[in-house]
Design a protein that fits this description.
This protein is an all-alpha fold and 209 residues long. The protein is built from seven helices and no strands.
Length: 209
């Protein structure tokens, strides 16, 4: 893994450092951790797809599981970089496994949510805008610019919104909202990702001129 990195407060925490050091001793490679993030994302997307159609405890369990898997995806994203850089376990193909699984994970989670709330087009749109934000960032790097991780709906923001949305949706039947939470969350993510892509594009154009 090379290049500048997303600024994350969690990277400097004691628990993250201890976890990364432990992983580095197990022989697990950063690339395998990156690949595991796709598995977590696929499970999150599946839970978001199936959960809203269920009732009672099954619905609650699936949506809470979605929130857990989303956070597990983020944990994998944190650990792969820390094991590669701080643990000096990076590989020549590390940049590929650092970026591509992230895009697949975004697609799986957002499209799964779209189908789950009965708005597949919105899920596809949110996934497209999410990938676009990353494309503009990487295009900027290819032009010699530093990576732009600005929001308002960068990857950590998208995942935080979906995690919160899934947790609230797990209990929304108590308030009679009937599926509105995840629909609203997906709209926020889609619009926010589009705004983020537009903002990054403008910032990149300004830097290149």
């Amino acid at each position: 893994m090379t290049g500048d990195r997303r600024p994350l407060a969690s990277r400097g925490t004691r628990w993250a450092g201890a976890a990364a050091r432990w992983l580095a001793t197990t022989g697990v490679t950063p690339n395998r951790i990156s690949q595991a993030s796709v598995v977590a994302a696929a499970l999150a997307g599946l839970c978001l797809w199936l959960g809203p159609a269920q009732e009672g405890p099954a619905r609650t369990a699936l949506l809470l599981a979605a929130a857990v898997f989303i956070q597990l995806r983020l944990l994998c994203n944190l650990m792969d970089g820390m094991v590669a850089v701080e643990g000096a376990r990076g590989a020549p193909d590390g940049p590929f496994w650092n970026e591509v699984p992230d895009r697949i994970a975004d697609i799986l989670i957002l499209i799964g949510c779209g189908y789950g709330v009965g708005l597949p087009e919105l899920g596809w749109a949110a996934a497209t805008f999410a990938v676009l934000t990353a494309y503009i960032r990487e295009f900027g790097r290819a032009q010699g610019q530093p990576s732009d991780f600005c929001g308002p709906m960068a990857k950590p923001h998208r995942m935080a919104a979906l995690t919160l949305g899934a947790v609230i949706a797990a209990f929304e039947h108590q308030w009679g909202w009937n599926g509105l939470t995840l629909q609203a969350t997906l709209w926020v993510v889609a619009i926010g990702a589009l705004v983020t892509a537009f903002r990054r594009a403008l910032r990149l154009l300004g830097a290149m001129r």
